[in-house]
Amino acid sequence: MTQTQLNVEQSNATSFDAVTENHLAKHAIQVHKFGGSSLASSQCINRVLEIIKSHCQINDIIVVSANGDTTDHLFSLYQLAQEQLQASLEEQDPRPLEAAVAALSKQQQALITELLNANNAKQLIHSLAADIEQLKAWLTGDLSAHHNNILAFGELWSARLLSALLNEKLCPSNSIDARDFLVIDNEVDCLVDTATSAAQLRQHRQFGKLAVITGYISKDERGHTCTLGRNGSDYSATIVASLVDARNVTLWTDVDGIYSADPRIVPSARKLHRLPNGVAKELGRLGNPVLHAKTLLPLINPLTEHHTHLHVASSFDAQVAGTEIGKFGQIAKQELSVTYLNDLLLAHSESFIGEAANKVRAEFAPICVDDKQGFVVITQAQQKALSQWLASHDTEVKFNPVSIIATVGHKVAERGDIKARFKRSLRSVKPLHLVNSDNSHSVIAILSEPCTPEILNNVHHDMTKDARHIGLVVAGLGNIGQRFLELLPSQLAKVEALENTHLVGLLSSKKALINNDGIDVNQALSLFEQDSQGYDNQQLLSWLSHHPYDELIVVDITPSEDFSLLYEQFFQQGIHVIGANKWAASSSTAHYNNLIQQAERHHSIWLGNTTVGAGLPINFAIDDLRHSGDEINQIAGIFSGTLSWLFETYDGSTSFSSLMLDALQQGITEPDPREDLSGRDVQRKLLILARKAGFELSLDDIDCQNLVPEHLQALDTQAFLARADELDEFFADQLARANADNACIRYVARLQATPQDDSANGLKLTAKVSLEVLAKTDAFANLTPCDNIFQISSRWYQDNPLIIRGPGAGRDVTAGGLHSDLVNICQQLASKQNQVKIKGIN
Length: 842
Ligand SMILES: Nc1ncnc2c1ncn2[C@@H]1O[C@H](COP(=O)(O)OP(=O)(O)O)[C@@H](O)[C@H]1O
Ligand SMILES: N[C@@H](CC(=O)OP(=O)(O)O)C(=O)O
Prior knowledge:
Elements: H1 16-20, E1 30-34, H2 42-55, E2 61-64, H3 70-86, H4 95-115, H5 118-140, H6 147-169, E3 173-176, H7 194-204, E4 210-214, E5 217-219, E6 225-227, H8 233-243, E7 248-253, E8 258-259, E9 271-272, E10 274-276, H9 277-285, E11 309-314, E12 323-326, H10 330-333, E13 337-348, H11 357-364, E14 368-370, E15 375-379, H12 383-392, E16 398-408, H13 416-425, E17 433-436, E18 442-447, H14 453-464, E19 470-475, H15 479-494, E20 501-507, E21 511-514, H16 524-531, E22 533-534, H17 537-545, E23 551-556, H18 561-564, H19 567-572, E24 576-579, H20 589-601, E25 606-607, H21 618-627, E26 632-638, H22 641-649, H23 656-665, H24 674-677, H25 680-692, E27 703-704, H26 710-713, H27 717-722, H28 728-740, E28 743-755, E29 763-775, E30 787-794, E31 802-807, H29 811-830
Parallel strand pairs: 1-2, 1-7, 2-4, 3-4, 7-11, 10-12, 19-20, 19-23, 23-24, 24-25, 27-29
Antiparallel strand pairs: 5-6, 8-9, 11-12, 13-15, 13-16, 14-15, 16-18, 17-18, 20-21, 21-22, 26-28, 26-30, 28-29, 30-31
Helix pairs in contact: 3-4, 3-6, 4-5, 5-6, 13-14, 15-29, 22-23
Residues 35-37, 65-66, 71, 154, 215-216, 230-233 line the site of aspartyl phosphate.
């Protein structure tokens, strides 16, 4: 198989910028690390194969951890062997160890036979048998000398199996034992001998073969096996990335990103879409299992300033955008998470006071240090070494078992409000101490008891309950769009429900400005002028599918049918839509029903109060009646501000056409007044309201009287305007007849649902929009020019219909109506319960 047969794709957390970047960048190497959870069973491994097929090129690098809990298994073998060695002769019983080795061997054999064809399986089982013999020899021989060699089997088997499977099913591949190239000088500091390691790695990579490298293990300068510590394969992946100047590292795991707390324990944890480097480092340091403490170190090359991007993604759901780790602005810096570690020790000693504390910092990198009170928190594994180190300084030390719970976020230790909230959230737990981490990215509470799921959930709730970040994309920067943006700064400042709403995108029909770090709302339009770039729908959808917000709202203030055709894809991504655009809500029945279904299925909210009657709450009123159990049977009114103006003003003193041209001048009509006179706009509005009221009908079911005579319909705009006086006779005639009966003419929309005689439940619908003759006393006859009126009859409003009346068009009222929809959505989203849905762990 050749390189081109593997799909060439950007990492799944592609940013909008990345999409528009130079396509040559696609050929930069990417490193993909698959953790143990992603390789735990043959089903998982087949999933990994699919990911490699769709996300990798042949010159990429795969780094693997041991399958599932193999490393735990190897650790327990070592412990069992140690117990055997320490037991007296009578107590010795080799059977548990033999059984455990046999179980491990069986597990590996099962993976091999389930995945490979008989021939390939045979070869791998042969190699496995040799390894098992070696393992047994080490377990019963010079055990401690082989501690790391024993642990190394996990990654070795995993790499060998995946490589064989790739060879059999997908592409040429070779497995590389990291001990053949990765030299780490000092296991404590994990100092990589970059020059030697890079040169040796080059020798082992084979052109045209996808390299599968063992994570977790390396060698020291004498060639002895070392490990990088638990979860160390993440670190292996970033070291390898630095050796080959890779562009991206993706850590594929069983969770689709880094969450604000361990999602296995905290079901309401939120995904952190973007994690600033420093915060990610702090999370790794405080034991977040998705990020090994040192993972981030190799990502920036201080010499070349080459910067590798890091992503966390789920191998169980490869399409879902994960967490991107990097350098971000203010919005990402506001994110908070809560993490904990049990089984720690609090050590008090004079050697931890003042300047002297720096030595213990350098030597042990404790979890936290208080150099005023003289204490540190360390892991139990560090106790012995710390005691010895203090003994050599001739100081005494007192250890107490403790746990920690920490709130982590960009410079949280410098944010008084957050510290105060954290303190309040811990009131019932009564922590022994609260300590700021040295880098200020966490505040750590030291607890005398273990941190329980209940404590973690409570503290997480208090720290993150109002932290839902909402991104706002405004499409359409015309008259209303501009007014919407003008109102936005003051709305964001004064409406509580908009507290975490950020303007992140502006779109015109040709250009886009997208900024995940937020667009300054006070200069939105000038920033758009300066920085927007050409885009197409594909680029837009690609960015939207990877947006880093809890929720995203697109406000469609365009008149574009094309743009409305994207709604389906917006809904499929869970994006919410506020539409002033009438196209989608008045599209064909099949299209409209599908949109409603998609929105429901993906929990997207679709509001369009301004599609009819601008800011008047007509859609709300109909929705409310319907959802309160009422049944609407009549909707009527004057729905067009333009036609309202024309007929309220037309009294015969001036000709209809000169009135129309006057209205055109004042911007009351569309640039081509036939769009208003055709009645199509009113027809669409009636359809939208009818659907809201629960009736299923299409545009064709509504009779529409076109006020433009046929011979003027096909002309271009200029020609029509030049011949506008040909309209006059018709309207003069209509007016004269109405006047004769002391009546007037108005363009009215009417929908009536009457029970069918032949069926108990069936309704007969009649709907039309047309010029009507009305008594001068009629409610529809006395409007302020431009106003709309809506009259609703229902079971509850039968004899005396509900009437809503007021300005049905205009810059302020329409932009205001859009803001009302925005607040409405944000309020609904605030009460939406976050519930982690992760295929890997649920
Ligand atoms: N804050 C967190 N965000 C995401 N996952 C977390 C977090 N804290 C703990 N976890 C857990 O970490 C697990 C992944 O870690 P790990 O077992 O090391 O993965 P892998 O085997 O892929 O290396 C997930 O199952 C997840 O439940
Ligand atoms: N297998 C090793 C190394 C590792 O990184 O594993 P994982 O990617 O499953 O966390 C461990 O269990 O510690």
